[in-house]
Structure formats: structure tokens, C-alpha cells
UniProtKB/TrEMBL annotation:
One of its GO terms (molecular function) is metal ion binding. This is phosphoenolpyruvate--protein phosphotransferase. It comes from Tepidamorphus gemmatus. GO terms for cellular component: cytoplasm. It is found in: Cytoplasm. GO terms for biological process: phosphoenolpyruvate-dependent sugar phosphotransferase system. Belongs to the PEP-utilizing enzyme family. The chain holds residues 417 to 741 of 743 of the full protein.
Amino acid sequence: RQEQYRRLRDVPAVTRDGVSISLLVNAGLLVDLPHVKEAGASGIGLFRTELQFMVASTFPRMRDQLTLYRAVLDAAADLPVTFRSLDVGGDKVLPYLRTAHEENPALGWRAIRMALDRPALLRTQIRALLHAAAGRELRLMFPMITEVGEFDRARELVARERRHLERHGHALPASVRLGAMVEVPALLWQLEELLERVDFLSVGSNDLLQFIFAADRASGLLADRFDALSHAPLRAMRRIVEAADAAAVPVTLCGELAGNPLAAMALVGLGYRSISMAPAAIGPVKAMILALDVGKLQDWLLPALSRPHRSLRAELADFARQHDI
Ligand code: PEP
Ligand code: MG
């Protein structure tokens, strides 16, 4: 199997009916970087910047952040990298950051909420990213956006830092693309307004599923209770890709779902053409893509979305078996 996947490394991820799928990796530390090329990925779809903060014993300084971001961009060379701004709180704890006790940290003061309340932290990070990407493209997305106004405020912070660097004669990125993560269900009813503002979207299915089902992503007791391949989340994810396509805004999905071949098949059937996963998942997912006829899958899956069943998992597995995927 491993050997078979290694042979696929340089084979483009194109379905049997000629649809190209961009397979990206999730990363977060320097040690992840060699895997990007080894896995034959087309870039880093999610760089979790909080990992550097989580392994440190105090806040990494601007210079340390800059060094890491530059190393990431250098390692990726010509491949695109999407950085995510600091996503702490919830399941991602910084031992040295003292915060008030919260009964429900997953629903609490975390990610962009904390960043907008403590703009100095976010501004330092933005400055490090702008420096690191001098002369290249900077792609940055914000986690846990719940209202479009939060994206506006984050974008304004980026604009301010850019003006600051410009005034001081620093080299700037050749281009800056800003995106939002879609992981809070409230955004499903603000997609049009959001799509007018962003350069790209990235669906965080881990949190999106947790909030759609109101089921803690870390709870072992609930791990198998609700199915990601059931109607509610599949319809939600369909709605996002449909709206993004209509607005001609690129969309990626970067939750763990993308690394499971059957789920990845469902995502491609829903219309996703870019998915980001753990490096080890690239081989199995690519093997699935090469065996898939997207047209056939969509002809069956999209109408099936409007028929109420508890889960489409068994039917998706049947489809895969019938079509030798
Ligand atoms: C997600 O929520 O799906 C996601 C990609 O981010 P994280 O798992 O880091 O919360
Ligand atoms: Mg998340």
C-alpha cells in the first residue's frame, strides 16, 4: 500500500472524468515541512500558527514568528501556503496565557474573538507574516469568524500594519489574500455578505460539525453518535461550496474529514475541488480521486441530499464499491 501511494506522488489528482482536485496538507511546525513535498501535495492549505505558541513556554516574539513563517514559505517554494491567524482557546490551550475560567471554552473567548480583544497580539503576528512574505504572496485566514464585521475588523488590522511597514520603507508582500474560516454555523446565513469581502473561504469541518451537532469534538462518548456523512452537515457543506462558486470565490475544506477517502469522495461530490488534510492521507485520497467519476457521483448524490435519511454513509460506501473506488 505505502509503495503504491509513493508511486502516486507525482501523478496529478485528476478524476476519471477529467476533474482536477487540489490536494493540500495541514501543517503547523517546521518538522511538518518535508512532508509537503514528500506527500506530493499542491501546497499547505492550513498552517496552524498556534502550534508554535503551544510548544513555547512564553509568547513567541515577533522575530521568532517571522523566522518560522519565512522558513515555511521557503520550504514551500512555489507552492501556496495558507496561514491561519492564532487560534487559541477551546481545545488549544496556552499554559502561560491566563484567562478567566469558562464553563464552555469551545464556545468561549477564543480564536478571532480573543485576537480582536487583544489586537496587539494579532498585530504582532500580522507584522511577522507581512515581513516574512516580502516579495511573495501572503495568504492569511481568520478562525472562528461568526459575524462578517469581525472579518472587516481583522482586515482593517492587516491594512494598518501594511501602511505602517510601507511608511517605514519595508518591503511588502507581492500580494495579500485574506480569507475566513467557515466553522461557525451562523456564517451559513451570511455567506453572500461574507463572499463580497473575502478572497477565499476555508471550511473548518472539525468545528463546524461540532457546532452543527452541538457535540463536543473531543468527547469520546459522542465520537460515533452523529455522522458527518448525514444530511444536515452534507447540506451545510453543499450550501457553502455552491455560494462560493456562484461568487467565484475559491473555497477549500481543511478539517479532518478531508483525509478520509469516503468522506473526501462525498466532498468532491458536493462540489469541493480543493481539500486539505494530514500528509499521510494524501496517498489514499489521491487513489480514490483517480478511480472516481465525479459526474456519476454528483448525479446520484445531489438529488439524494434532498431525500431525508439519517446518514448517506452506507449509500456512499455502496457507490464506491459499485464503481471500484
Ligand atoms: C477545523 O475546525 O476543522 C479546523 C481545520 O481547525 P482546527 O481543527 O485547528 O480547529
Ligand atoms: Mg477549527
